[in-house]
C-alpha cells in the first residue's frame, strides 16, 4: 500500500507574501506523530458526522479502528469518502493537515499485526489480532474494524506565515 512522495503544489493565492510550501517531510512527520485526528464521514441522509479518534500512519496510509455498529462504520458502508484532519488549535502558530480519501477495510492478518504493534507503541493500546479485525481485551466484546485511508489529496495549512500547500498523488 505504500506510495511514492506526492507532488507538491504551493497555493500563493491563499498564502501570505514570502510564504513557501511546507516540506513534505514536515507534513509526513505530523501525520505520523499526531495521536488524534478528526474523522468526517457522511450519513445516508447527507448530514455530516465528525468524531475525534486515534490513528496510525504506516507506509503513507492513515489507519483507524472502530466498532461495526458505530456511526462512522455505518456511514462508511454506504459512502467510503472521508476526511481526516489534525493540527494545532492555535491561530498564529503550527500546522494543520487535512487528508482526503476513501476508507477501505483492512482484513489482511499480517497488516493487522503490523498495525497492532504500532497502536501499542504509539498509544499504549493493546489489540488482539483476529483473522480479519482487532479485539480489545479491555473493551466491549466483538470485532473492531480497521480502516485504511490512502490519501487522494493532502492539504497543509501553515501559520506564521500563513500558507496553503496541496500534496497530490497520481493525477
UniProtKB/TrEMBL annotation:
Q: One Pfam family, short name please? A: PNPOx_N
Per UniProt, the keywords (alphabetical) are:
Oxidoreductase
Q: Do you know which InterPro entries this protein is assigned to?
A: F420H2_bilvrd_red/Heme_oxyg, Pyridox_Oxase_N, Split_barrel_FMN-bd
Describe the location of the Pyridoxamine 5'-phosphate oxidase N-terminal domain by residue ranges. 25-134
Please give the superkingdom of this protein's source: Bacteria
Name the record gives this protein: Pyridoxamine 5'-phosphate oxidase family protein
Amino acid at each position: 500500500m505504500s506510495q511514492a512522495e506526492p507532488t507538491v503544489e504551493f497555493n500563493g493565492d491563499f498564502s501570505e507574501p514570502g510564504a513557501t510550501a511546507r516540506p513534505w517531510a514536515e507534513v509526513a512527520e505530523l501525520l505520523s506523530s499526531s495521536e488524534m485526528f478528526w474523522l468526517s464521514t457522511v450519513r445516508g441522509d447527507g448530514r455530516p458526522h465528525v468524531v475525534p479518534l486515534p490513528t496510525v500512519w504506516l507506509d503513507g496510509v492513515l489507519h483507524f479502528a472502530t466498532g461495526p455498529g458505530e456511526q462512522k462504520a455505518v456511514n462508511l458502508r454506504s459512502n467510503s469518502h472521508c476526511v481526516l484532519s489534525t493540527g494545532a488549535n492555535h491561530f498564529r502558530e503550527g500546522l494543520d493537515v487535512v487528508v482526503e480519501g476513501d476508507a477501505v477495510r483492512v482484513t489482511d492478518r499480517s497488516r493487522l499485526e503490523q498495525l497492532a504493534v504500532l497502536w501499542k507503541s504509539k498509544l499504549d493500546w493493546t489489540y488482539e489480532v483476529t483473522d480479519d479485525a482487532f479485539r480489545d481485551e479491555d473493551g466491549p466484546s466483538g470485532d473492531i474494524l480497521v480502516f485504511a485511508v490512502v490519501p487522494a489529496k493532502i492539504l497543509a495549512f501553515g501559520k506564521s506565515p500563513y500558507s496553503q500547500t496541496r500534496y497530490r498523488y497520481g493525477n
